[in-house]
Amino acid sequence: MTAYFIRRFLLIVPTFLGITILIFVITRFVPGGPIERIIAQAQQQALEGGGTAVSETVQRQPLSDDQIDLLKKYYGFDKPVLVSYVTWLGKLVRGDLGISTRYYDPVWEMIRERIPISLYFGLLTLIATYGVCIPLGIAKAIRHKSAFDDASSVLVFVGYAIPGWVAGILMILVFSSHWELFPLGELVGENFETMSLWEKALDLAWHSMLPLMAYLIGAFSFMTFLMKNTLMDNLAADYVRTAMAKGLTFRRAVFGHALRNSLIPIATTFGNNISVILSGSFLVEKVFNIDGMGLLGYESVVERDYPVVMGVLAISSMLFLVGNILSDMCVAAVDPRVKFE
Amino acid sequence: MTDGYPILAVNHLVAAFDTEAGRVRAVNDVSFSLEAGTILGLVGESGCGKSVTALSIMRLLPRPTGIIESGSIRLNDTDLVKLAPDQMQRIRGRRIGMIFQEPMTALNPVHRIGRQLVEVFALHRPDVDAGQRVQEAVALLSHVGIPEARARMDEYPHQISGGMRQRVMIAMALAGKPDVLIADEPTTALDVTIQAQILELILDLQKETGMAVLFITHALGVIAQICQDVAVMYAGQIVESAPVTALFKDPRHPYTQGLLTSMPRLSSENKSTLPIIQGTVPSLSQLPPGCLGPLFFTGTLGVPIGDGSEKRKAASCGKPKDGFSHPRRCAAKKGGAGACGGRCFANCGTR
Questions:
Q1: 0.90 surpassed by complex ipTM
Q2: Which of A160, B3, B135, B164 is most buried when burial is the number of CB atoms within 10 A of its CB?
């Protein structure tokens, strides 16, 4: 099995190479880019500076061909596609993600600044999802068709029907704007720097509450029902009856026998969740004005900040690849029947 | 343990399932008794209520749909129907062991065989320390005919064959040294050679331990091979029960006759059509109340063909002939005609 996983890790190399080609091709050939953005900015400036009698200059392209060539050279668009791809890939492998065309900051620095924020929410969401969904799923399976089961199903389905960011807006409206129980957004309060450690922790928790709920609400229903349904399948399985026939209590039959079998499908989703940890949800981040990876990726796409787009995509696809292998490892750990050769 | 006294007595057991179409009685007024040190065969076709009877005895009917409506199940002097769940737990595995039909799914796929077996010792023999439990488990595995028992302990169920798994199941059922073993079609899922081995094993173990066995099967051949007594079930009721030799020599109920006629025999003519019981078992939710007799006698249900059809004519409802006056021999042998609750076919005309 070790050999299998070594092979899987080696296979990341060609897969990742394919992904980089895709990323590069997409960012290079879709219309719009840093040059177009600069042209638009120049138009904007001309419009503001020239007042009313500038329609002619605005219609025309404000930058000369020389200027554009200079820009192309600056951004590396003057070289053939293959050459610039290889250059980019060479830098990527060395950990150099290039420079943002918008902020002129190194992309890696920008991403690194946001990793702790995304990681914080990602880990909290992961822990909360598993921490809530698994026990809730178990309770629902055991008390199938009870009032508790029905009521929680309604709640979970409503949560499923509402996207996380919509729920976020609703929560801001109700809890922050109307009742003023929670802050409107941001990760920490204004005078965070001056607080004591305890106050900092409290402040962070207070600010994290609503975004965390918004993150949870989507992941919630899927995991809860996955847990409930697989556990119910397993409770009806012959081996649980065998366990009961041996004289085990229902409780011990559930926790000692059925539960581990029910965790197998949950384990398959684990790796994907790992990769979601870092990427987060840009919509939720946007709603709560949290400066994480998701928001960075989203804004860089809107602003055609391609080095950042490419950097974020490269990192998240890498995480996804590793996450998939982690999923398989989890499955192999839980299910002895799984043998990877 | 002396033979002859009823160790397990089921009286007027009614087990039902709540379905969307209403309540269905899968076991309808079933009475039989299992005598200590004997093997009672419970035979019938799929869906006739054999397994539901067994699960009722274990109080393992699927919750919450399956319920025991009425009747009693007495293990010695204890009525299992009235026991609290925690008391019932101490009966399961300790006083009554059970083997299931499907060895492929009856063992937990993610636990090692040793762990599943040692669990029974831990439950019912708490005085024995952990090392001793493992030793006993290994000894028991070799006893049920598993080679290299020590190595098997560390294997998972998917790593051993179906026959071996059934042996593990038997070892698990016997680990608590039960007085009664319920074997619910233990050989159905196995091939013929392994079937014979497993039957022999059960028979040997029964002789050795003196436990009573309720052997559920749909194979009359198996019944003839190992049982002392037999009860034939049809549509949730026991239609005939008798000592095994008497039943095979002189089947009295038309259904039993049909079953026996349908068995291929070495003496039957080559390539002739095998007699069959025609029709299918009626849906339990559409069963008429009371006696099933009229169904047989008027031919709405299983009608034995061949020589059975002549007997059917002779036994048309309301004119019971000799052999059919009381086809349902009562489980309570000395109880006489009255003990069967007046549901006999003799009464079908006047029901």
A1: no
A2: B164
